[in-house]
Amino acid sequence: MDFDFSDDQEQLRDAVRKWVDRGYDFERRRAAVKAGGFDRKTYGELAELGLTGLYVPEDHGGMGMGPVEGMVVMEELGRGIVLEPLAQALIAGAVINGYAPDAVKSEWLPKIASGEGLVVLAYQERKARYRLDVCEATAMQAGGSWKVSGTKSIVAAGDQADAYLVPAKANGKLALFLVAKGAGVSANGYTTMDGGRAAEVKFQDAAATLVTQDGLAALEHAVDVGIAATCAEGVGAIDKTMQLTAEYMNTRKQFGVTIASFQALRHRMADMKMQQELARSMSYYASLKLNAPAEERRRALARAKYQLGVAMRFIGQASVQLHGGIGVTDEYVGSHYFKKLTQLELTFGDTLHHLGEVSSRMQDTAGVFA
Amino acid sequence: MDFDFSDDQEQLRDAVRKWVDRGYDFERRRAAVKAGGFDRKTYGELAELGLTGLYVPEDHGGMGMGPVEGMVVMEELGRGIVLEPLAQALIAGAVINGYAPDAVKSEWLPKIASGEGLVVLAYQERKARYRLDVCEATAMQAGGSWKVSGTKSIVAAGDQADAYLVPAKANGKLALFLVAKGAGVSANGYTTMDGGRAAEVKFQDAAATLVTQDGLAALEHAVDVGIAATCAEGVGAIDKTMQLTAEYMNTRKQFGVTIASFQALRHRMADMKMQQELARSMSYYASLKLNAPAEERRRALARAKYQLGVAMRFIGQASVQLHGGIGVTDEYVGSHYFKKLTQLELTFGDTLHHLGEVSSRMQDTAGVFA
Amino acid sequence: MDLAFTPEEQKFRQDIRAWVRENLPKEISDKVHNSLHLTREDMQRWAKILGKKGWLGYGWPKEFGGPGWNAVQKHLFEEELALAGAPRIVPFGPVMVAPVIMAFGNAEQQKRFLPGIASGEVWWSQGYSEPGSGSDLASLKTRAERKGDKYIVNGQKTWTTLGQYGDWMFNLVRTSTEGKPQTGISFLLLDMKSKGVTVRPIIMLDGGHEVNEVFFDNVEVPAENLIGEENKGWTYAKHLLSHERTNIADVNRAKRELERLKRIAKAENVYDDQRFRDEIAKLEVDIVALEMLVLRVLSAEKSGKNALDIAGLLKIKGSEIQQRYTELMMLAGGPYSVPFIKEAMAAGWQGDFPGGALGLAPLAATYFNMRKTTIYGGSNEVQRNIIAQTVLG
Amino acid sequence: MDLAFTPEEQKFRQDIRAWVRENLPKEISDKVHNSLHLTREDMQRWAKILGKKGWLGYGWPKEFGGPGWNAVQKHLFEEELALAGAPRIVPFGPVMVAPVIMAFGNAEQQKRFLPGIASGEVWWSQGYSEPGSGSDLASLKTRAERKGDKYIVNGQKTWTTLGQYGDWMFNLVRTSTEGKPQTGISFLLLDMKSKGVTVRPIIMLDGGHEVNEVFFDNVEVPAENLIGEENKGWTYAKHLLSHERTNIADVNRAKRELERLKRIAKAENVYDDQRFRDEIAKLEVDIVALEMLVLRVLSAEKSGKNALDIAGLLKIKGSEIQQRYTELMMLAGGPYSVPFIKEAMAAGWQGDFPGGALGLAPLAATYFNMRKTTIYGGSNEVQRNIIAQTVLG
Lengths: 370, 370, 393, 393
Prior knowledge:
The complex is a heterotetramer, with two copies of chain A and two copies of chain C.
Chain A: H1 7-23, H2 26-34, H3 40-48, H4 67-79, H5 86-99, H6 102-114, E1 119-121, E2 138-142, E3 145-156, E4 163-170, E5 173-180, E6 185-191, E7 197-212, H7 215-249, E8 253-254, E9 257-258, H8 263-288, H9 294-323, H10 333-346, H11 351-360
Parallel strand pairs in A: 1-4
Antiparallel strand pairs in A: 2-3, 3-7, 4-5, 5-7, 6-7, 8-9
Helix pairs in contact in A: 1-4, 4-7, 4-8, 5-6, 5-7, 7-8, 7-9, 7-10, 8-9, 9-10, 9-11
Chain C: H1 7-23, H2 26-33, H3 40-53, H4 71-84, H5 92-104, H6 107-119, E1 124-127, E2 143-147, E3 150-157, E4 168-174, E5 185-191, E6 197-203, E7 209-222, E8 226-227, H7 233-242, H8 251-267, H9 274-303, H10 311-333, H11 363-369, H12 380-392
Helix pairs in contact in C: 1-4, 4-8, 5-6, 5-7, 8-9, 8-10, 9-10, 10-11, 10-12
């Protein structure tokens, strides 16, 4: 039982933080939003830092690191509300490395690590809501090769991606495929509420490579990697939101005094601090359970995402309120943190959804280790 | 659309309030709790004021009044946290008058009005929780007369009552009976959390009179009368709780100033005031819908009890907290209001139960008149 | 005590309803029912339709050309408009400045300004808030110096809602720095086309242009545009704030939006999900309770007995409900609330929305936009201060 | 970073568990597992069993006869005791006064008082709160006047938990009225059998006798019972308060009670009612999050890196969780939580409980009793003041 970061982990954090502070200021971000919400150059810089290959083994050109390192990195990206979807690289690295045949690994893992290949999870369907077992996309085998057909929504940077991890029903059972951009793949991109980019991606008899027949297990694992990343990203965004709010409260004057002197607002801030620390605790928990057996992992990740959902909404809304008018303007950076926190709540299952997951997965025993 | 009370209603309120202020002080109440939680003499005084016959028609010796008068009276009794269960007289008056054959009316309504006959609803069963359609008690007809068998729990003043309104299954269908104290009826009395009295009542082939074959409709109506009374009682208890809390906050000093000067506590009080006025509004709504058609009535009463449940719990708990240590002592009257509010939440269906009722009864339209 | 409206009141409602059905353009109500972007033309078109009927100033007394309705009638009118999907009446002219002109303006001012307001021809803006003033309105700094028969105005206003369309603006300006901050304030009407007036948009977090900064650089305002007496403006402003009572709760719109929320929840297959449905049920109780609160206030106003001074409660509960239904709509959309396509938030977009769920397009933006409701019009924290004062002294 | 305890720590846990299984009397743990009334004898019996093993002072360093455990070991010990259904260790002797005597008492005092505390023979009470002092402890008024080799104590303490059983009492008393209120306070040990000491019960809202008022009427206390220096008592008291860190959250008991809540919910047929079950699920997340928070604090203490000073958060969340599980247990009982039969709240009652639901008998009383947890030990409002200070300055 030890929650200290190693020196290596602290160095990783410093490196990412430095890049965010120096290389990813609010104006650069604003320009990226205007330009459509995704910047391949920025993504390339993340790759140069080694981040896209964080979960890619060293012999495939990556850093071969684990969930705690992933958490550290995502916290820092969250702190900078970085638009480029690094979580997708973590998912792709973990899933391909964990489930794919060697040929797929050899072809794609180095590209993911180098940033040359942007591989994203394309799983959301219109009828599924947040369920993972609802899937209408299909895969057919013809002459030894697979073809995938179906439509996937809200695919992160989906019109910029080089390949997709696509769950589809093969012979009635959910399998997971890798589909490279090409014939039979069309993507319709748009901006998302946080200023980032996503796309509706249509697959029409698109050539596909089988990642695993055990698609549901792989998809659940992929989403859990995504949840842990989202939790950490949320913690980073929360930390910065808290900092902005405290600074504002100590600057802004009303009735001749700073608003930080009003007890009712101070107590609100205390409640926010509570949510902040609960969120951080549960983000640790999520990452530390990411390599646990599936049933235990799913239970833990649901608990974490539920807590994060509560915290992100509470802190986001309270921060806007404490800022007053300035908090609802586009010009002020704080409103962008609020939108990021809102989107993270809706990502990989919202709060009510995960309450349901926690509720249905409850056991007789209680606590962190249960 | 008019929410003013008539002069007669105001006079009724004054009369009850005077009795509470002069005749029912905290010491008398404390003595009644010690003596077991019910005092027939006090009940007699309520009868003398005409209150037990509020819903009994004038030609049966009652006052022939309606839900608004019932609300006014229950508010005042709630303000005084009067132990004696007048709500039971309102239920008995309304149900017998509304559903019973003339012979039953002629025999029992005058007694209810005079206070000579304490008739209480005995409906709660162990397996029913808050559902009204779950009933294991049975009724058998033999030689033109009915016999009821079964056990009913938490019957208000059940060991002091002269007769019971008892739902029981007759030929598989829920019917409502009147069972007078006598052979085959045994009651085991005890105190309740608010200091009042209830009993476990066992019926063993007890002679019964049929009130109505349409037992579920009558029981639902009875419970709705009870809900409206409980809402009004809750409003009275809330009003007094608010008054006590405001007085305490303006008296108690900490760090050299009254605690009423702390903004965080002031805002808590504002939130309590919100709940108080929402509660009063929904208590009005409950009483004003009590004579509506069954489906509309049930929907409205569920909404009201849900809101009251939220308000009673919030204000009760917040009041204790704002009082600090003194608030959790038996000596201080405020703690008895808290216990009363707690019990009222559990009476005739708690907050989660009524949330379920509201949820399942929702319609496409919205608002007070829907 | 009676919950039902009187037969006369119900007849009144029916008449309003029939007229609205006839006169509210469907292309406008469709936008309102779907939270789509309303243009200036939409708003002004509807204002003029009401103006022609004599109902834009629906709260005005008869002597000024209004219908002379009582509180209940005004409520029923507001409710019928809201349920039918009419745009909210832009309040700055008919609801805010007009009562001040009626109460404190001179006959000349009344004759000059009221007709344009009543007809919907002249668009008014409000000049109260300033950078830094916030909840402490009396700290305002915009100066108006009397020079002969003119005032020279310098300073800045902010959060000027729809000020980009404004013809005229009513302003609180500082004409004296002596005494308490409240005492040196005057109420001035200002032609926004005057030289030295600059309107700069403030883009909100939802991307919309709804509010503005307005700068005054030596703007000349004829002294005849002063309402009432110099340095008495604070009194007039408070009069204005004490107007607008029950509509602050916006319960009628909440009822309409609750019905819409149920439709969205059905379409998204969460209406029968108990977990989500319970959240709607809680909101339904909130709205019924708020409506009862509003009706109690109306009844008290009608009878004059037992005045119920709970505007703060109405503001808090009303704004929380607004935020909650927009939040639940967004949550009902689930992942499909994430796409944020500006063009899809205006009527008539022909693009492909993800999953074909076009109705969800404006939900997140509406949720973001509604965060303002607990901040403006006296933040909910200020309202709690006021309420606590009534309970605790 | 690692979530698992080390093999050594797990071995430590197993040893504690085995010992507790052997030594905790079942008739006592049955009472704890069912919230039944614990007598003085129950509490003292268990204290003496721990004392004999040398574990009553489980936080003590070795030089004073304690086991010398680190923060994690103490936590594991507390957890094993809690999960097994051991009564909470009455803290006034071993946890509260003993560390003060060790740190600030002289050798004579240590020799005289510590053995009786360690063995569980001597029952200590706390004399801090006074009528009117509340969260403003430094305002205390009980006077101690030095007369020769004695102090003459006059005044009153209140909320003295289990003071009716007390042999000795440690008191904060005023020895000077000069300077700030904090500077004139001394720390005095007082034999409760002294002449002039009167203990008067305070009955709580649940009907229980748990706290007392203690009156001092010219009580003579030998000057040798003064801890440390006169007028320095506030410093010692603060040292005491800074002890007791993670256990303030009481997360181990919460885990035990969550499991019990699930059992009650199953027995009452609401565990499979999604609406009720969701409430348990929320509590489960709360408890896991709190446990993670506690573990983070322990880890920080163990490594000495990144000190985590969040006692206020632990107090608030821990107390809110305590109140919530007692509330949910009561709600699970539904109507059968309404009967309030005192005798049924003690072990061995032979009467008929309504519906035969005897296990529900103490639930409402426990719920009522737990309202104190957000008030005592620094009210949650005071904790919020402190937390806000750390965030906002």
